């Protein structure tokens, strides 16, 4: 396989990892006003992702760096044309990260309420805008002969892209709520399971609509087949959550997000940034990639580094695998 095509799927794998892992982080953050009845509950929710949220977030840094190195033309077009949307995502991630670190610095309830609000907003904005961005990439935008998009933010907020944003928002929210039921116990665990049941119905409807639209308008047979697998996995996750099997429900939801993102990359293939106004202006894997020497060096680096990263991430999750309870949070406060 040509290295440019290999790196297209490596970049896809990195974004899949990011959406699966940081996706439930976003969901936990968005669930604060729905699941917590007091400050102890909010501390339990935040502590479920406390040891891992920053590790999950590094996936987007690696994905962005790989995109820059492997496909500089794609990176330049994406980050210049989608600048405001990506800036909003970055600011939201910064606000969320700061809030996690500073929330507990002052016992005042107003101080905590302020940072709780920033966690909610800092989780919801990226969850929405990542879907908007990827939907626009698949749909295509108007590019000129120099592969430049200058339409601004408003044209990106079209019905298809907004549906994509709503899809990722709901997928991440349900993913995070199922994670809460997996990591907590007692009343909070049961409330999370019930909330996942309610949000799961809406998620199935919205995600199915988006995947059908994508397949019919922009997809291929292969991307459509993967989209069907994603839909089946989403329904399986819903049923398993109903039965109280939160571990399996979480696993199937992660698989749903992975296959849904894979279907978007397959719908995009072999383009990386289609031009909706003129196919001749489209960025493809071949005309957007770096030199073969650069890709060769990157491939050898990834061959040695990626297994270490995956092993370290797996070890981290194993160390922090136990449930977080109100009792343990109250004890840690003394």
Automatic annotation (TrEMBL):
Main localization (coarse) = membrane
EC number(s) on record?
A: 1.10.3.-
Stored NCBIfam families: cydB
Q: What is this protein called?
A: Cytochrome d ubiquinol oxidase subunit II
Per UniProt, the keywords (alphabetical) are: Cell membrane, Electron transport, Heme, Iron, Membrane, Metal-binding, Oxidoreductase, Transmembrane, Transmembrane helix, Transport
KW Chaperone (keyword) present:
no
Q: Where in the cell is it found?
A: Cell membrane
Q: Which GO terms describe its cellular component?
A: cytochrome complex; plasma membrane
**A Pfam match:** Cyt_bd_oxida_II
User: How does the record say this protein sits in the membrane?
Assistant: Multi-pass membrane protein
Mind telling me which InterPro entries this protein's record contains?
Answer: Cyt-d_oxidase_su2 (IPR003317)
Q: Which domain of life is it from?
A: Bacteria
Biological process terms from the Gene Ontology for this record are: aerobic electron transport chain
EC top class, as a word: oxidoreductase
Q: Is Metal-binding included in the keywords of this UniProt record?
A: yes
């Amino acid at each position: 396989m040509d290295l440019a095509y290999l790196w297209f799927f490596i970049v896809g794998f990195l974004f899949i990892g990011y959406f699966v892992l940081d996706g439930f982080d976003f969901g936990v953050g968005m669930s604060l006003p729905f699941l917590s009845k007091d400050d102890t509950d909010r501390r339990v929710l935040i502590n479920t992702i406390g040891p891992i949220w920053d590790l999950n977030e590094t996936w987007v840094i690696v994905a962005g760096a790989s995109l820059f190195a492997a496909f500089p033309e794609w990176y330049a077009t994406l980050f210049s044309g989608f600048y405001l949307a990506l800036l909003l995502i970055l600011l939201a991630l910064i606000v969320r990260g700061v809030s996690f670190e500073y929330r507990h610095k002052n016992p005042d309830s107003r101080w905590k309420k302020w940072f709780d609000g920033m966690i909610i907003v800092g989780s919801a904005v990226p969850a929405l805008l990542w879907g908007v961005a990827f939907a626009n990439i698949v749909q295509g935008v108007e590019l000129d002969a120099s592969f430049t998009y200058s339409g601004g933010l408003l044209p990106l907020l079209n019905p298809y892209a907004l549906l994509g944003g709503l899809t990722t928002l709901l997928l991440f929210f349900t993913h995070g709520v199922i994670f809460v039921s997996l990591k907590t116990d007692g009343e909070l665990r049961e409330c999370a399971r019930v909330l996942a049941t309610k949000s799961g119905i809406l998620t199935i409807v919205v995600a199915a609509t988006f995947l059908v639209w994508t397949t019919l308008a922009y997809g291929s047979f292969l991307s459509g087949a993967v989209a069907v697998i994603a839909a089946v996995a989403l329904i399986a996750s819903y049923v398993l959550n109903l039965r109280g099997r939160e571990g399996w429900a979480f696993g199937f939801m992660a698989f749903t997000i992975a296959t849904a993102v894979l279907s978007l990359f397959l719908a995009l293939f072999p383009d990386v940034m289609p031009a909706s106004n003129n196919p001749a202006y489209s960025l493809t894997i071949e005309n957007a990639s770096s030199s073969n020497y650069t890709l060769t060096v990157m491939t050898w680096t990834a061959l040695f580094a990626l297994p270490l990263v995956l092993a370290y991430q797996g070890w981290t999750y194993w160390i922090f695998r136990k449930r977080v309870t109100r009792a343990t949070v109250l004890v840690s406060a003394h």
